[in-house]
């Protein structure tokens, strides 16, 4: 008989991506599709109108695989996502911990809960070019809404920790002691560097870094510069066409 925990996680994958009810996407300049297509929800190439995550099924399954590996290998530390939108990835991570009876790891949510910052004239040129703040009507989700989403799954408890505010303000003093999985979804050059500079030193050897937006030139530049500066040569592995991860060797 299949393990009950695994059956729960199979279902949770489908619920946070809403492959169950197949909500229509919100058309935008990057993903203009107006009709639900399962292949887009698989690859995270639409902005769902209802689903609690836009990362798609493959990237949710990547998180499940990485959590399996750090738990099996005894890699110490928590899970954090920087840039959480409606909270679906973190909801899944908390569900994973609960399904496996893990009580000594937390799930951290770092987000402005206002959307993407307007970098203005002082921001990195690549961030100004993207101007993602124009989409904050969709991308800005309040902390209260994310808490409500956790509550709908019965997963809002003291193992869920919120870090509200801009990364440059919150991450340098965040009370995170040790991380096993660090997932970056901040889109921008500056947001990506803020997360790496402040959180990578807390990542355990054997832990994983996930870069959701590696296909965005600004994000990729920040990651590549950080790796070069710190002499990181751990192999970058693709999740799909848009996202990558690597395992910290030391």
Automatic annotation (TrEMBL):
Keyword vocabulary terms for this entry: Methyltransferase, Transferase
Molecular functions (GO terms): methyltransferase activity
GO biological process: methylation
Pfam family, one: TylF
Protein name: Methyltransferase MtfB
Record organism: Streptomyces virginiae
